[in-house]
Amino acid sequence: MIRARPRAFPFRTSVQSQKQERPRVDRRSGSGRRDATQTIGQTAIHPQCHKKKNPAPRRGTPSPSHAPETRPQKTLRYLNPTAAPPLLSRFPTLHLLTRICTLFLAFFITAHIFMEYFYILTAAYGISMLPTVASSGDWLLISKYYRRGREVRVGDVVSYKLPLKPGENGVKRVVGLSGDFVEVREAVVEEGEDGRKVMGSRPRCLQVPQGHCWVVGDNLAWSRDSRIFGPLPLALVTGKVIAKWSWSSWVPEWGRVEHGLKPAEEIDWEVD
């Protein structure tokens, strides 16, 4: 029996086909570039096949063609406190009136706090403090530090709430504090030696009770003071006169308003 010899195949073995030939380098150019074609096994590959493909976009990252358009960021109003609100910016007159009302309200609140707890400027009226304080034209600066009789001394001129007329204030001089003795002379009608009735006085000594003071006006003949309503409670004292200013003198008189406690008839003064 004759065996047939196996037919020889024209291709190389599997081991030889898997070997890749090294690419030929053009040494004349010196740039190290590969030739136009490369042989891998028995197949010719174009150099464009070696270019890397565009990597696939990651999940969740938009592609450049589908990227959202960037919009200009809006400036929030609360980030710019100087900017006027939209409603007021449309109406300039309303915006101006709002600012004026705000400034007026702030001034009113500040003035109220200043006059209630610090100082107050008030006009003088009446003749009970003549000639120290004129009946008209004088202005008194009153300090609220001395309210309720705080650090008040004998001889100070204080402002107080009238005990007989609620809602009204008065200005008198302090002549006695708690524990002091005050002599009060009451006017009485007496008979003279010839039988005629004459005006006289009867002295009476009083002690000022605790928590009170005794106030009188410099014009004793025309003053309604503690001789009428009795000792004044210190709780009614609203302040102390620390300066006087008049139209005749532009310079205010600071310090204690000094004057003797004697009848006005003994002092030279003029009344308009």
Shape: elongated
Q: What is the helix content?
A: 10-25%
CATH uppermost class of the domain at 120-259: Mainly Beta
Our estimate of the beta-strand percent is 25-35%
Rg computed from alpha carbons, rounded to a whole number of angstroms: 54 Å
Mean pLDDT, as a whole number?
Answer: 73
Instruction: Write the H/E string, N to C.
Output: HEEHHEEEEEEEHEEE
The CATH architecture of the domain at 120-259: Ribbon
Structural class of the helix and strand makeup? Answer: alpha+beta
Distance between the termini: 170 Å
Number of strands: 12
Written account of the structure:
- The protein is 15% helix and 26% strand.
- The protein has 272 residues and is of the alpha+beta class.
- Strands 3, 4, 5, 6, 9, 10, 11 and 12 form an eight-stranded antiparallel β-sheet that branches.
- Strand 5 (157-161) and strand 6 (169-176) form a beta hairpin.
- The longest helix is centred in the middle third of the chain and has 26 residues, at 92-117.
- It is elongated and about 120 Å long.
Question: Summarize this, please?
Answer:
The chain has 272 residues and is an alpha+beta fold.
How are the SSEs ordered, and which strands pair?
Blueprint: H1 14-18, E1 38-40, E2 43-45, H2 86-90, H3 92-117, E3 119-123, E4 138-143, E5 157-161, E6 169-176, E7 181-191, E8 197-207, E9 212-216, H4 226-229, E10 232-233, E11 237-246, E12 253-254
Antiparallel strand pairs: 1-2, 3-4, 4-11, 5-6, 5-11, 6-9, 7-8, 9-10, 11-12
Which terms would index this structure?
two-stranded antiparallel sheet; alpha+beta; Umud Fragment, subunit A; 272 residues; disordered C terminus
